[in-house]
Design a protein that fits this description.
The protein has one domain. Helices cover 44% and strands 14% of the residues. It is built from seven helices and seven strands; from the N terminus they run αααααααβββββββ. Helix 1 runs antiparallel to helix 7.
Length: 221
C-alpha cells in the first residue's frame, strides 16, 4: 500500500472519530484544533497544484466519477502487458520529457473509483467508508503525491536515455479480490554508456486482468 493511501486512510479514520468524541464531551466546547488541522492539511496539499498539475486538475480526471460511459466496468485501460513493458514506457517518456505519457501510465480517477477503492476495504477498515467525499479525499491525496513524484523524476532524469535491466518489488505484493498491488519497485537500468544505475521513482504498481498500471510515482524529496 502506498504511503499516500495509508496516510489518507488514517486521516479519514480520525475525521470519522472526532465528531463522536465531541458528542461525548457534554457541554464542553469541541476541540477545534484537530478538525482545522485536517482541513488545513488538505488545503496546503491542494495548493501545490501548478504547471503539469493544473493540466490534470483542469480535466475530467480531477474528479472521481461513478464510471465513464463506454468503458468496461472493472477493467484497466491502457497501461502495459507486463511490469517490464510498463517500466520501459516510463523510461521512454522520461527520456522524451513526455509528461502526458507519464500521466497516461497512472490509474486515473475513474479507475480509482470503480476498481481500486471498492476493494481497499478488504485490508483497510477506513476504506469501507462509501461516502463520495471520502473517496475524493483519498483520490486527491493519491494524485498529488503521484504528481510530486513525477516532477521529481523529471528533474533528476528528464532527457536521459536509460535501458531496462530488471525490476524487483522489495515490499512484496498485496492481493485483493480482483487485482494485486506490487510495492517498492526498484528498477535496475544502464545508461547509453553502459553505466548501471538503480531507480526508486516508481510507486505501487497494480495488475488486473493481465494489464499493469501505476498508482503513483514515488516522491523521494
Amino acid at each position: 500500500m502506498t504511503l499516500s493511501i495509508m496516510r489518507a486512510l488514517v486521516a479519514v479514520s480520525m475525521l470519522a472519530i472526532l465528531p463522536l468524541l465531541a458528542a461525548c464531551g457534554g457541554d464542553e466546547a469541541p476541540n477545534r484544533n484537530e478538525p482545522r488541522a485536517s482541513r488545513s492539511s488538505m488545503v496546503s496539499r491542494a495548493s501545490v497544484t501548478s504547471g503539469v498539475d493544473a493540466h490534470v486538475a483542469s480535466g475530467a480526471d480531477a474528479h472521481v466519477t461513478s464510471g465513464a460511459v463506454g468503458r468496461a466496468s472493472g477493467e484497466l485501460t491502457g497501461g502495459a502487458s507486463s511490469p517490464r513493458r510498463l517500466v520501459e514506457q516510463v523510461l521512454d517518456a522520461v527520456a522524451d520529457r513526455d509528461t502526458a505519457a507519464l500521466l497516461a501510465m497512472l490509474v486515473d480517477a475513474d479507475e480509482y473509483d470503480r476498481i481500486v477503492y471498492p476493494e481497499l476495504g478488504a485490508h483497510y477498515v477506513a476504506a469501507r467508508d462509501t461516502r463520495s467525499e471520502t473517496r475524493q479525499f483519498l483520490w486527491e491525496n493519491q494524485r498529488l503525491d503521484a504528481l510530486k513524484g513525477m516532477r521529481s523524476a523529471m528533474r533528476e532524469l528528464g532527457g536521459r536515455r536509460l535501458s531496462f535491466v530488471t525490476i524487483e518489488f522489495t515490499e512484496g505484493e498485496q492481493r485483493y479480490p480482483s487485482y494485486r498491488l506490487m510495492e517498492g519497485g526498484v528498477v535496475s537500468v544502464v545508461d547509453a554508456d553502459g553505466t548501471p544505475a538503480t531507480l526508486h521513482m516508481l510507486g505501487t504498481m497494480i495488475e488486473k486482468g493481465g494489464r499493469y498500471k501505476l498508482l503513483s510515482y514515488r516522491d523521494l524529496d
